[in-house]
Design brief:
Blueprint (H helix, E strand, L loop, with lengths): L9 E3 H11 L4 E4 L6 H9 L3 E4 L3 H15 L3 E5 L2 H17 L3 E7 L2 H5 L10 H5 L5 E4 L6 H13 L5 E7 H5 L1 E3 H7 L14 H12 L4 E5 L1 H6 L2 H11 L3 E3 L19 H7 L2 E5 L20 E6 L13 E4 L2 H11 L9 H23 L7 H12 L6 E5 L2 H9 L8 E3 L9 H12 L3 E6 H5 L4 H7 L4 E7 L29 H6 L3 E5 L2 H14 L3 E6 L19 H5 L1
Parallel strand pairs: 2-3, 2-4, 4-5, 5-7, 6-7, 9-10, 9-11, 11-12, 12-13, 14-15, 14-16, 16-17, 17-19, 18-19
Antiparallel strand pairs: 1-8
Helix pairs in contact: 1-2, 1-7, 3-4, 3-18, 10-14, 12-14, 16-17, 16-22
Bound molecules: ligand OXT, adenosine-5'-diphosphate and magnesium ion.
């Protein structure tokens, strides 16, 4: 547009990027400022985008990723070049692995110098470095391509199976000027970034026919089902068919954990004995033993609902694939289902109830024991009591024992409230996920962290305090990775590889930044601290002293941990 003196008004890449983000309703950036994106962060903030500044790009990326999962809009992470880019990459790769929509935008150094490897400041061919870890990796080389570049990134992140996308923006492009009219015309508002994908009707009939023949059917709900936000239809299908369901960890709460059809407390029995299993947004990966022996029967038949056609037959033959988006697929199944068409055998339901009761009794006795020092169960019993009437609270969770035992003890009653280590079993998501969840929802978050797990993102306590976020971090301090009692096998003074500082006063970290710190050595102290912290709505950290001998090596996945004969002899 021409101004009054008829000189075209000028804009630049910084402004265009901000305009492009706003045009697509991307209202929050999670990042770390520095050359060449400092002014981008400033300008975004000045123009009404919320900018959350982190201490490390990995946490910024994790916050963006979980924001993407919760909102179904790509979370935006902003980083500087080479090392900042790489720090964010772990989160971007993790987002891709988990199917969370996220876009990492990184500034980059001078193209000509980088490509001739002439040693630029923070030199790296970032676009190509990102390719193996992302759904898509693009570079914008001209300011007038910022709009289309962001549009491509949004569509790639959201359509089909969601994932992480990298968008490279060289410093020269950010600073480059162009006339405002060309700039405005270059912007793209993405229409229907994740179009519905209707399943073929014959696939719906086939799935129902396979389920109708089942005597011992089981539905497994994964985080794809949670992401789909088709909560009411999924529940209706499960309740109308009467099929027992097993939630994967981030699908807990899609139906409440205390729902009578939940088979969570009879997990291995349900997997081994089911004759037809319907996977809804869950991959047959390591978390499900690849669908193979010894966890599974060789004769089990599968129905699988997934948006990614290539997921079908990934590990086992799938008798009835339903390829489509879960909301459309479940709605088609419900519309096609005839009354009484699917009926699990009464004996199957009875067996599951008995199995569940056995494990529930075992859990109850763990929870009733009140050892001194606290073990994971007694600490979690206290937390369970406090959270019982607060289903809206997000639970972020990582660690080994701290992860596995929390998953089983803390019931979830609302969808998408449990956020955890996910498909990679990764440590380091804790504070980033907690911040992302608090920022997008404004709701309180309780992050239940192993002491090792916490260390990967612990400095973000400062970020939590700086933004006054309602996050209570609970550290299960057993003085180590898995346990705190291992010994140096050469008898020297150095601690063993898995040992951390036993009496670390993590609560002082919170106090250092103006948050509240608590040190809890009994379930009563823990419950009171958590109650008080949640009531205050302020950032807090509760350091829980856990018996260093309470955990097991690798938590519930010790079977995946190769052990050397040398270690066993000692
Ligand atoms: O089937 P059965 O009959 O056995 O019954 C099951 C359920 O039905 C039953 N159950 C219940 N009973 C009663 N009531 C209720 N409500 C109930 N609910 C369930 O309980 C049993 C067991 O249930 P579960 O656990 O679901 O069943 P199972 O068969 O074990 O499930 C298999 C899995 C695989 C699905 C499940 O175990 C699972 O989801 N596991 C996830 C495991 C995982 O991801 N672990 C994290 C990685 S471990 C390791 O890699 C770590 N590292 C290395 C590292 C990583 N990861 N990342 C990076 C970047 N660097 C390094 C590190 C450093 S962990 C770690 C730190 C550890 O130290 P911390 O200090 O942080 O933590 P602590 O261990 O606390 O010290
Ligand atoms: P979990 O770890 O909970 O078992 P996974 O991450 O392994 O879950 O699997 C999630 C699956 O859900 C992926 O295969 C992904 O393609 C699929 N998915 C994600 N979103 C949708 C959707 N909206 N519709 C259909 N499938 C989806
Ligand atoms: Mg520990």
């Amino acid at each position: 547009m021409a101004n009054e003196t008829n000189v075209p008004s000028i804009t630049n890449g910084f402004h265009l990027m901000v305009d492009a983000l706003k045009l697509n309703d991307l209202e929050t950036i999670y990042g770390v400022a520095g050359i060449p994106v400092t002014d981008l962060a400033r300008l975004a903030q000045a123009n009404g985008i919320r900018y959350i500044g982190f201490r490390h790009e990995q946490s910024a990326g994790n916050a963006a990723a979980i924001a993407g999962y919760l909102t179904r809009k790509p979370g935006i992470c902003l980083t500087v070049s080479a090392p900042g880019f790489l720090n964010g990459m772990v989160a971007l790769a993790n987002a891709t692995t988990n199917g969370f929509p996220m876009i990492q935008i990184s500034g980059s150094s001078d193209r000509a110098t980088v490509d001739l490897q002439q040693g630029d400041y923070e030199e790296l061919d970032q676009m190509n470095a990102a390719k193996p870890f992302t759904k898509a990796s693009y570079r914008v080389e001209r300011p007038e391509d910022i709009g289309i570049g962001l549009a491509r990134a949004i569509r790639a992140a959201l359509s089909g199976r969601p994932g992480g996308v990298y968008l490279d923006v060289p410093a020269s492009v950010l600073g480059a000027t162009l006339d405002a009219e060309t700039a405005t015309r270059s912007l793209v508002r993405v229409v229907d970034a994740a179009p519905r994908q209707l399943p073929a009707q014959e696939s719906v009939h086939r799935a129902l026919e396979v389920l109708a023949k089942a005597e011992r059917p089981l539905i497994i709900l994964g985080k794809g089902a949670a992401y789909a936000q088709a909560d009411a239809d999924i529940r209706a299908f499960i309740e109308e068919t009467g099929i027992p369901f097993l939630p994967m960890s981030m699908a807990k709460g899609l139906l409440p954990d205390d729902h009578p059809q939940s088979a969570a407390a009879a997990r291995s029995y349900a997997l081994a004995q089911a004759d037809v299993v319907m996977l809804i947004g869950a991959r047959l990966n390591w978390l499900l033993g690849h669908g193979k022996s010894p966890q599974w029967s060789a004769t089990t038949q599968f129905v699988q609902l997934d948006i990614a056609a290539t997921e079908i037959d990934s590990n086992r033959a799938i008798a009835a694939p339903v390829v489509g988006d879960i909301a459309s697929s479940v709605s088609a199944l419900l519309a096609t289902l005839e009354p009484g068409q699917i009926r699990p055998q009464a004996a199957w339901l009875k067996e599951l109830v008995q199995r569940k009761q056995h494990n529930i009794d075992r859990m109850a006795s763990h929870l009733a024991a009140n050892p001194d020092p606290m073990d994971f169960y007694s600490a979690l019993g206290a937390i369970k009591g406090v959270l019982a009437d607060k289903p809206e609270i997000y639970v972020v969770n990582e660690g080994a024992n701290a992860l596995d035992i929390t998953r089983n003890v803390i019931d979830m009653r609302l969808p998408r409230k449990r956020l955890d280590s996910g498909t990679w079993g990764v440590m380091g998501i804790g504070m980033g996920y907690a911040i992302g969840a608090a920022v997008v929802s404004g709701k309180p978050v309780v992050a239940i962290e192993g002491d090792s797990a916490f260390g990967f993102s612990g400095m973000e306590i400062e970020t939590i305090c700086r933004y006054h976020l309602p996050i209570v971090t609970v550290i299960f301090n057993n003085g180590g990775i898995y346990r705190g009692d291992d010994v140096n096998r050469n008898g020297g003074a150095d601690p063993a590889p898995t040992v951390l500082m036993k009496d670390a006063r993590y609560e002082m970290l919170s106090e250092a930044f103006g948050g509240v710190g608590y040190h809890a050595v009994s379930p009563q102290e823990l419950a009171k601290a958590l109650d008080d912290a949640l009531a205050s709505g302020k950032p807090a950290l509760i350091n829980c002293a856990i018996d260093p001998t309470a955990g097991t090596e690798s938590g519930h996945i010790g079977n995946l941990n190769p052990q050397s004969s040398i270690a066993q002899q000692k």
